[in-house]
């Protein structure tokens, strides 16, 4: 796969309360050469984002404590991370959900269940160009 070479070393965070989703995303991303950070919810993610500064963040919408919209809004309000691409993950594929994601600053919307290709394509479209 040609674009997989461009993903080596890209730091990707996956925020999802589903262990299955986190594990499958991690497997796909690691195979493509990405460094993967996992978080169970928004609170867990926010501290890890500050510590590890991921290049790209995948964020589930339906999570306990802090949902994906709130998490995305907080990331985008932080001047240090405003430019970090946030891709919403959701099993809901409605126009309203997509619009709400845009309103809080998300850069893309990926519907679950996602495929390996759609996940890697999303990473490739936002991967920092300097990564070899």
Topology summary:
Blueprint lengths: L10 E5 L3 H13 L3 E5 L2 H11 L3 E5 L7 H10 L8 E5 L4 H9 L4 E4 L4 H11 L6
Parallel strand pairs: 1-2, 1-3, 3-4, 4-5
Task: Give an overview of the whole structure.
The protein has 132 residues and is of the alpha/beta class. Helices cover 41% and strands 18% of the residues. The chain has a 5-stranded parallel β-sheet, with helices on both faces. Strand 1, helix 1 and strand 2 form a beta-alpha-beta unit. The model has no long low-confidence stretch (mean pLDDT 92).
The tally of beta strands, per DSSP, is 5
> CATH superfamily name?
Response regulator
Structural class given helices, strands, pairing? alpha/beta
Which overall shape is indicated by the principal axes computed on the Cα atoms?
Answer: globular
Give the low-pLDDT segments.
none
CATH fold node name: Rossmann fold
Number of helices: 5
Task: Identify the CATH architecture.
Answer: 3-Layer(aba) Sandwich
Which band does the percent of strand residues land in? 15-25%
Q: Span from first to last CA? A: 15 Å
The main sheet orders its strands as 2-1-3-4-5
Number of domains: 1
Helix amount? 40-55%
What string, H for helix and E for strand, traces the elements in order? Answer: EHEHEHEHEH
**Overall residue-averaged pLDDT value:** 92
**Which class in CATH terms?**
Alpha Beta
The biggest beta sheet is recorded as: 5 strands, parallel
At a glance:
With 132 residues, the chain is α/β, with parallel strands linked by helices.
List the defining traits of the structure above.
132 residues; alpha/beta; Rossmann fold; 5-stranded parallel β-sheet; 18% strand
């Amino acid at each position: 796969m040609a674009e997989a070479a461009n993903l080596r070393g890209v730091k990707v965070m996956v925020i999802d309360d589903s262990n299955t989703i986190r594990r499958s995303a991690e497997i796909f991303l690691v195979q493509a050469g990405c460094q993967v950070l996992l978080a169970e919810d928004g609170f867990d993610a926010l501290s890890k984002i500050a510590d590890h500064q991921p290049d790209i963040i995948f964020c589930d919408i339906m999570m306990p404590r802090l949902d994906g919209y709130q998490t995305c809004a907080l990331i985008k309000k932080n001047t240090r991370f405003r430019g970090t691409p946030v891709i919403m993950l959701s099993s809901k594929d409605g126009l309203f959900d997509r619009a709400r994601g845009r309103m809080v600053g998300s850069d893309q919307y990926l519907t679950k269940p996602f495929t390996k290709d759609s996940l890697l394509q999303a990473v490739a479209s936002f991967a920092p160009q300097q990564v070899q």
